[in-house]
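DATA SHEET
Item: assembly model
Revision: 1
Owner: S.N.
Input lines:
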Amino acid sequence: MKLRDQFRFVRQNMKKNRTRVFMTILATAMGCAFLIVLASVGFGLQKSVVKEITERRVITQIDVHGKETKEQGMFRPLNDKDIQIFEELKDVKSVTRRKMLQQEGTYSIGKYQEGTPTFVTNFPAEIKAGFELSEGTFPKSKYEVAVGYNFLTNLADKDAGEDLYDEKGQVKAEYLYKGKLRGKEIKLTIRQFKAGKQIEKTIPLKVVGISTKPTKEWAQDSSVFISDEMLTEIERFTGTPKGYMLDANTNKVPDDLEVNKNAYDDVKIYAKNMESVQRISDQLKEKNYATYSVVNELKEVNMVFMIAKAGLIFIGTIAILIASIGIYNTMTMAVTERAPDIGIMKAIGASPKTIKRIFLLESSYIGLIGALIGTVVSYGISYTVNFAIPLIIKQAFGQETDLNLIFSDIPPILPIICIVICYSVTIISGLRPAQRATKVDVLKAMRREV
Amino acid sequence: MITIKSLSHDFVIGKKGRQTIIPVLRDISFTVEKGEIVTIVGRSGSGKSTLLNLVSGFIHPKEGEIWISGEKVSDLNETKFADFRINNLGFIFQSFQLIPSMTAFQNVELPLILKGINEKERKVQTEQMLQKVGLLEYQDHYPGELSGGQQQRVSIARALIVNPPIILADEPTGSLDSETEEELLKFIKELNRDLGITFLIITHDDKVANIGNRKIELKDGRIAEEVLV
């Protein structure tokens, strides 16, 4: 018997009891829609979290925090030797390293001043990693500096007092420095305690470059980049490594700072591509370096969501299993009702295999139609959820939700998983009735005794 | 064409431990030659229907052999017998055994569907067969919309559609009036004469019993008499 004819048979049989078949399809569709929508929440939230992570961080960036010492669990800061090792690794584009001034330097132009972090960095490595200037040039001499794009955001009138900030905690525009920055002389004030007294040193510096605006809207960069020679001069004044400001009472430099005075405070490795991040991370791990990258984080996030999604799919599958009871019932009824027809078909030459195939086809047909309807409905629900939930939250709590938050996402794999599960479940639930159909006794069936 | 050798059969009734064995057929042996019409007669309970069901493969014999067209069908399993049946045997039943939810056309077409014949060819053959039994204009009628005689003709058309060399008939005129009975017997004779189809007919009707070449009478599960007609 040809497949096409089997389909025709199945459709003809299904038409005999439209209501029952419709209810069974409806139950299957509801089960499938439940599975897809439930799992889509997991997919949606994962998408949101992954998007959040990858947007906030450069995906090819690997932070190296230190190297594990022989004493397990202890890490030492990184030095030039480590940088050399990193640069020799395959597919490493650049290794940026920064030393941070161990006190907040105060920068002033006339009556305007601000306290901001100060770094010494290797500009060639920064440029290779993508650091760019919006205007000016990179510092070349001891007294030249580059500043972050947002440096001016906090450069404010020092005499403003309590009136400096508005209710949002931002410096009022009227107190901000409005002049040109590039080519301007700014004064860096360094402090130190000597013999219990705080002494200051003011160093005149020239702003030669301003970095580009950070790509992320929320990011602020008001750092100042000084030269290595300038750091040496500061150290000469403070008498401590990296300009560390002593405690007024103890006058003591912490031991680890003393030992690691030439170590870097911030080291980042930039891989040539995303694919090599994991390999570089693994190599560093083997060499006992403590690393962190988005890929690591994504791996963990994806693992957590994988478990969550598997759980949700499992719960959804229960709904399909419940629907399969309906299919089993429908098919059992169909076999009972059609027993005389089955008997006649067997009498004129239908093999048990053909009979079984027709009933299995019917149950899987019901399952597939249900799965397809369920898929279409779940796309509708998913769209509605994504559209309506932010509105509901806004109405109920008066809060705007993050525009990037996806409550429900249905990737193509999800309907495929659902259809496969549904098809398998319906085949299993149709198996026993189909088996029963093959066992119909021809004589009893023809005598209408079944 | 059909050879029955030492065929015995009995039914077991009752629950386990309290079963009763009822002998139905005892040591039946006979042959039906190609192109013959052989009728099996006997009183109710003589075992004639059981004999036909054994030859049809609807039940499996306890003892003895059944050979049809050179094949020992008593050894075939259900699936193999189904294949054999669709290619070699046609059936005419007393109560027609048409599928009520199918039209006359669909009922006649069914064996061709089971044989895997394509739709175009099926249509031609089915229409020709319905024409032959004089029911072409009733092809879209359901069995419930046809008279007993018409239903039996649909049943015959369904039996003939695969050109079987043998037709097994169980009380073919049992549900028909005398006029329709005459017509049917005439048609059976024509089929036998024109197409050489072999008939094995079970009946308790004398008129039907005498249309064949031979008549075998069963009594208490044994062959009581075998006469040429």
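QC remark: Residues 2-228 of chain B form a domain with the Rossmann fold fold (CATH 3.40.50.300).
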